[in-house]
Class I SAM-dependent methyltransferase (Streptomyces pratisoli), 226 residues
Amino acid sequence: MPLRSARVPRDAVHHPVFARFYARFSVSADLRGGIAAYREELLAGLSGRVIEIGAGNGLNFAHYPAAVSEVVALEPERTLRKLAVTAALHADVPVDVVPGAAEALPVKSEAFDGAVVSLVLCSVRDLSRALSEVRRVLRPGGELRFFEHGVAPGGAMATVQRGLDRTVWPRLFGGCHTSRDPLAAIEASGFELGTYRRLRVPEKGPRLPTSCCVLGVARRPHEDTH
C-alpha cells in the first residue's frame, strides 16, 4: 500500500534524552512491572492489516497474533524509531516501521482493519486531530485497541496531574500530559466504545508511582463516512 505524502516534517518529534530514558524504563516495566501481559491482552484477536501509532521502541511487536498480515508502525522520534526497526526484525509478523506524526498519518483512508494506540495519546500534540486521523484510516467497523494512561477519577490526584501538565511535566517527559482523558477523547472523536477496564499500572515491579490506565477496544461505526 503506497504511503501518502506526509504533511509534517520527517522528524516532527525530537526528544533524544527522554527517548533513551524511556527505552530503558519501558523494558524494565515490561519485564518486572507486568506491562507485557497488558500488551498481550491489548493485541489479542487482531487480524488483517494493522496500524500502530507511536510504536516507541517496538515492545508491542512481539505480541501481535499470527492472524495479523501486516503492521505499519508509525514512530516520529528518531532514537525510538531505530530501536523499533531492530524489534521489527525479530517480530513473528511483518512490521514496517515508518516516520510520521499522529496528526497526519501518511497512509490512505480506510486502509486498515485495526489500529493500536499504546501509551501514546498522552503525548500527541493535537489529540482530537490524531484520533480523527486514526478513524480516517480504519475501515468502517475496524477496531481501535487502546492502552492509555490519563487523569485520575477526581480528587487530589487529578488536581496534582493538572498542575503538573501546566508546569514542567510535558517538557521533561517528551510531551507527556498526565491529565488527559483518553476514553472521553476517543468517544468524542466518533468511535463507538466497546469493552474496557481501568487499571492501576504498574501493579508490581518498579518502585514508581502508579498511573491510572484504561485498556480496551473501540470501533469505527459501520455507517461512518467520516
Summary: The helical segments are 16-32, 35-43, 78-89, 127-137, 155-166, 169-172, 182-188. The chain is about 30% helix and 25% strand.
